[in-house]
Amino acid sequence: xxxxxxxxxxxxxxxxxxxxxxxxxxxxxxxxxxxxxxxxxxxxxxxxxxxxxxxxxxxxxxxxxxxxxxxxxxxxxxxxxxxxxxxxxxxxxxxxxxxxxxxxxxxxxxxxxxxxxxxxxxxxxxxxxxxxxxxxxxx
Length: 139
Fold this sequence. Notes:
9% helix, three-stranded antiparallel beta sheet, 1 helix, mainly beta, five-stranded mixed beta sheet
């Protein structure tokens, strides 16, 4: 599924990983190219309402994440897999093109990152052209 269209928001999905070495299925899995993501961001930026990208991988944050996922046209929210062990703090925003990155952390307790934290999730709430984010931590 590439698009999830809601009355006041559109979610564009980018499945898989940017490198087949990070896919459980290897070369048989879903690998994306940087130009694929840029095209999705362009299409998403042209949509009405809130524009949300949902990704398995994280955009570049400091020294971790994918550089190809960090640039592109203005969208509002990028919901992504973890780049850092802890999930994002509670936040809120609207249709402003600021490309806020939100990560629920990892749903499982399997150690995949340094300094593994307990399982976490997040709740993204949409109201018209406003959104709010609340991380949910298993403590």
